[in-house]
Specification:
Blueprint lengths: L1 H37 L1
Length: about 40
């Protein structure tokens, strides 16, 4: 059972980490998106 909980924990942490990376990538790209939105 503990092993199962550990797997879920690792998956959740990984998803959160990927989400953070995606947000950073979007922040880096945001000037391009803003430029597109203004049109």
């Amino acid at each position: 059972m503990v092993y199962f909980i550990e797997i879920i924990y690792l998956i959740v942490m990984r998803v959160l980490y990927l989400k953070k990376d995606l947000e950073d990538a979007l922040k880096n790209l945001s000037p391009y998106f803003k430029w597109d939105m203004d049109e």
